[in-house]
Amino acid sequence: MTDTAATGRALPHPERDEIRLETVLHALADPIRLRIFRELSAGEGELSCSQFDLPVTKSTTTHHFRVLRESGVIRQVYRGTAKMNVLRRDDLDDLFPGLLDRLLAATELQIRRLGGGA
């Protein structure tokens, strides 16, 4: 499935029934992608890529967002020149009940245990 914004640019997303657990877990196994996931989980609505302060280059940031989108963790759409991101919580909660909440809780426990950010 693709989303097309007013600009005519479309980004590929897996259909809900194409999202696989192992792909989601792989996407969230990376600390940068887990950080993006946490920030999207904490926010309300869409966040642009530029709203994330990540300790990697722009091209690496683009890669991380693409992995999250192609795994079905996030949905991305263009709003003008901004690429907006939103967690596909409804799809993921329906497919894997409780998974996101457990991952968030485990991440918070790890942050407290290690005394740093994820």
TrEMBL record:
It comes from the Bacteria. Pfam families: HTH_20. Residues 13-107 form the HTH arsR-type domain. Keywords: DNA-binding, Transcription, Transcription regulation. The keyword DNA-binding applies. InterPro entries: ArsR-like_HTH, HTH_ArsR_DNA-bd_dom, HTH_MetalResp_TranReg, WH-like_DNA-bd_sf, WH_DNA-bd_sf. PANTHER family: TRANSCRIPTIONAL REGULATOR, ARSR FAMILY, TRANSCRIPTIONAL REGULATORY PROTEIN. This is Transcriptional regulator. It comes from Streptomyces monashensis.
